Structure formats: structure tokens, C-alpha cells
THAP domain containing 9
Amino acid sequence: AQLLRLTIGKLSDIGITVLAVTSDATAHSVQMAKALGIHIDGDDMKCTFQHPSSSSQQIAYFFDSCHLLRLIRNAFQNFQSIQFINGIAHWQHLVELVALEEQELSNMERIPSTLANLKNHVLKVNCATQLFSESVASALEYLLSLDLPPFQNCIGTIHFLCLINNLFDIFNSRNCYGKGLKGPLLPETYSKINHVLIEAKTIFVTLSDTSNNQIIKGKQKLGFLGFLLNAES
């Protein structure tokens, strides 16, 4: 934290203004954020810290969305089922989807082959982005329409995947000409983006495991709280 403050101060000395800081989502980064004055708590969240060279300027703090996505993927696999106000998301639906892909069913949205062995394999970051995607949600929607027994109650899983995908698109935006949620934050896109952020905050505070333990109060909360902090930033 002290090195970061020193760096920001040196940049200010040569005319470069730092508006925001992005870090990975590790235990050390969380400690650094707290040392800077960031509060990562659903009840008392503070997303900015004081600029070391300007008493009137605050610097926003972000966690890298790819790391947050991986944390949520690992939490989802660990809990197996996540309850929220819109239903229940089941990890087993993804396992069943991979099994169907391995059988090479026709007339369905194909899931990426890199998700093979989903049940027993810890995926890399790029695979986590494929997991929380529109293509996987579309595949589940199609299977739901077929009324196949393993997918008859997958509405909650679809909703959960779509929400995480939308959050990732917002915070992984890199192109000023991007479309939809992948576009920049502008007056004309603010309403749509803000709607997703409000929905995420409303849902994340209700997430619980099968024992009704609130997830954002537990050990695997950082992925969810990280996206909430990004939303505040």
C-alpha cells in the first residue's frame, strides 16, 4: 500500500493523474486494499481511497474481473447449489450439459470442449469465462424446452449464469466502440448498465448455500463482494 501511494505521488509530480487502481483478487490484494482505506463489506462498503498528493481527489479501486470470475466458479462448484431470490442455481446442470456434449447431441448449442471433466477439474480463468456465458445459458434454455428430466428445474441456473456473464461484460469492457454491456459507460448506456449492477446487488445479498448460510458472510465471499465493490467504483 505504501509503495502504491508513493508511485501515485510520483506520477502526480510529472503531471499524470491516477483515477483508479485495479488489482488481482488475492488475499494479499485484499490486505493492500484495506490498508489503503477500502472497505470490502456488503454492509459498509467504501470503494475509494485518498489521493496521496491531493486532498480533494479520491481514487477508485477495482478487482480484476477475470480473477473474480474464477473465484465465483470455484465457489459454485464447492457449494454445488446456490440459493437466491430468483431460484436455485445447480452445478449439476453444468455437469449434465458436459455429459450431453460428450454424446455429441445434435440441434443444440454446443458447449466449449474445454469444459470436459467439469465435475472433477479446476478450470483455468479462460474456461471460467466460457462457463458463465450466453452460449451455456442458451444450451440450458434449449434443453429446458425439450423437457429433459435433468434440466427441468434449471431456470435458476440460467438466471445465475446470465447475471455473472453480464457483470463480466461490464467490467471487462476494453473497446470504446463496444456494443451492449461490453460498451463504455456513457449517458446513453448508463441506465442499462446500472440496471444490471442494481440487480447484482439485490441478488448477491440473498445468496445462500443449502444450509441457508449467507454466502457473502462466509469464506468464499470475495468473488461476489469484489463485483459489488467494482459496481460501487
